[in-house]
Amino acid sequence: MKITLKERSDFLDRIDFSFRVNPVVALLGPRQCGKTTLARMYIKELKRKKKIHYFDLEDPEDLVLFENPN
Question: How much is the pLDDT for 60?
């Protein structure tokens, strides 16, 4: 099943609303359902507005950052 642009836009709006209510938002779902793609789309739009922090816990470089948190 392919997600339409309207549905994807709705998901992006939900993420935006969640960040207005909470400082941290998690995208959860089964493998290969588009979580990373959706997050990257959101980040691409958000980078134009403000600084963001994105961590991929499957990326060894990002995991190193959590070894000695500030």
Answer: 92
